[in-house]
Design a protein that fits this description.
This protein is of the alpha+beta class. It has 2 domains: 49 residues; 356 residues, no CATH class. Helix content is 14%, strand content 28%. It has 4 helices and 19 strands. Strands 5, 10, 11, 12, 13, 15, 16, 18 and 19 form a 9-stranded antiparallel β-sheet that branches. It is globular and about 100 Å long. The chain starts with a helix and ends in a 10-residue tail after the last strand. The relative contact order is 0.17. It holds the Pfam family Neprosin.
């Protein structure tokens, strides 16, 4: 009997070891299946996103710019746009912009222009999506998308609940006194430092309709951003965004999903912008003008003198009619909601002024009478002004303008 006991113990241990091996093998098999499924999803998304180019341009920053026939761009994968007739110009212009800036300013330049400043006629430049771009996303289905509720409750300072925009911080000016049909603004270009790979920093304008905390929020957005997670580098890039369901399933950055229709063959949305401003030195900016065409309801985008294209009214609900709010300013985001030292704007606070703090100037709106004018009732929103802040004023040269930005956690008074 005593001799049998060690054998039983050995048998139990052997069975336990075999069970562990089977569990480990099952885990490896499950991981392999998930990995294979993810690879299939990535390849499928790449096929849908990257349209066959007629020519390609290698950019010095590592981007590949594909020149895709205008009729083959991603927009026409949208079910509402299958039989859409491409429009090559808006039906009207609402009048002179503040300071007639589009005729006198230095036009936007992008890094890829060093190897070719435009695509052939009847094509548009599209930044090629790479496998590693998609793999940096939290999930394949979230590639090219913002997090849901990313700007909810940006209506007034009092509405900003402590956890309303977890991970997001804003320093913005906002107007919501009328029905709006467009906006114009000149946005200072910077290359802020992002502390962590998942952080981003941007300057933009938001045109919105519907409630910020609802699933049917509509937005049209445009500006510049620095996002290593999105692009794989820390370059300053031109971007656009739209959503019609509160950032859930509908909408995306740039041309990463069907929606925005591009007509311009010289500017790549998502492409790097160069040069950018230097602290205490040369300053650079871009003018962004978005207006709703009263004839067909489409929202047209113009950057400096380039009319880039339009968001068809059919992809929206609220914005098919008009906007109820327009916002201008900066935003930073950190994945784990902890306070980082990611810079907003220049990384310096508004009171430092021209050449040191980031600005947005010549801020205008198009009202219900299709008049372009300075906005009324502008109010400022900065949830943590010791981290990131905003100031506004107006004068004859800059019209309505703001300075905004900050250093985040590098400021000892930032909580």
């Amino acid at each position: 009997m005593a001799a049998t006991r060690p054998c039983l113990v050995a048998l139990v241990m052997a069975l336990a070891f075999l069970s562990l091996l089977e569990g480990a093998a099952a885990a490896v098999a499950g991981s392999t299946r998930r990995s294979a499924q993810r690879r299939r999803q990535v390849r499928s998304l790449l096929r849908r996103t990257n349209k066959a180019p007629l020519a390609s341009i290698q950019s010095p920053d590592g981007d590949v710019i594909d020149c895709v026939h205008i009729s083959k761009q991603p927009a026409f994968d949208h079910p509402f746009l299958k039989n859409h007739t491409i429009l090559m110009r808006p039906s009207y212009h609402p009048g002179d912009l503040h300071g007639d800036s589009n005729t006198a300013r230095r036009p936007i330049t992008q890094t890829w222009h060093q190897n070719g400043n435009k695509c052939p006629e009847n094509t548009i430049p599209i930044r090629r999506t790479k496998e590693e771009d998609i793999l940096r996303a939290s999930a394949v289905g979230r590639y090219g998308k913002k997090m849901p509720r990313s700007i909810q409750n940006l209506v007034s300072v009092n509405d900003l609940a402590p956890n309303a925009t977890i991970g997001h911080q804003h320093a913005v000016a906002s107007a919501q006194e009328d029905k709006y049909y467009g906006t114009n603004a000149t946005i200072n270009l910077w290359q802020p430092m992002a502390e962590r790979a998942n952080d981003f920093s941007l300057a933009q304008l938001w045109i919105t309709g519907g409630a910020y905390n609802s699933n049917d929020l509509n937005t049209i957005e445009a500006g510049w951003q620095v996002s290593q997670k999105m692009y794989g580098d820390n370059n300053t890039r031109l971007f656009i965004y739209w959503t019609s369901d509160g950032y859930n399933k509908k909408g995306c950055y740039n041309l990463k999903c069907p929606g925005f229709i591009q007509i311009n063959n010289q500017i790549a949305i998502g492409g790097s912008i160069s040069p950018v401003s230097i602290y205490g030195g040369s300053q650079y900016d871009i003018n962004i003008f978005i207006r709703k065409d009263p004839k067909n309801g489409n929202w047209w985008l113009q950057v400096d003198s380039y009319v880039l294209g339009y968001w068809p009214s059919s992809i929206f609900s609220y914005l098919a009619d008009s906007a109820s709010n327009i916002t201008w300013g900066g935003e930073v985001y950190t994945h784990d909601a902890g306070q980082t030292s990611t810079q907003m704007g220049s990384g310096h606070f508004p009171e430092e002024g021209l050449g040191r703090a980031a600005y947005i100037k010549n801020i205008q709106v198009i009202d219900s009478s299709n008049n372009i004018k300075s906005p009324n009732g502008v109010h400022l929103i900065a949830k943590q002004p010791n981290c990131y802040n905003v100031q506004s004023s107006n004068n004859s040269d800059w019209g309505t303008y703001i300075y905004y930005g900050g250093a985040g956690g590098k400021n000892p008074n930032c909580p």
